[in-house]
Amino acid sequence: MASLSEMYDVGWEEMRDKLRKWREDNCRNSEQIVDVGEELISEHSSKLGDDIWIIYEQVMIAALDCSRDDLALTCLQELRKQFPDSHRVKRLTGMRLEALERYDDANKHYDAILQEDPTNTAARKRKISILRAQGKSTEAIRELNEYLEQFVGDQEAWHELSELYINEHDYGKAAFCLEELMMTNPHNHLYCEQYAEVKYTQGGMENLELARKYFAQALRLNNRNMRALFGLYMSASHIAASPKVSAKVKKDNIKYAAWAAAQINRAYKMAGRGNKDNKCSIKAVEEMLESMQIAMP
Amino acid sequence: MSCLLSCLAYVKMYLHSCLFPRCSVNGLLLSSSSAGGAVCVTDCVPLLHSHLPLAPITQLALTQVKEDLRVQEGDQKGRREPGCRRWPNRLVELLQALVSRVPLPVLSPVDFCRLGTDCCPFLSRIMLRQWEETRDIASQLLESGDHGLLVDFDGHLDDITKDWTNQTLNAKIAELSSPANGSI
Question: Least CB-CB distance to A226: which of B22, B71, B157?
Answer without folding.
Answer: B157
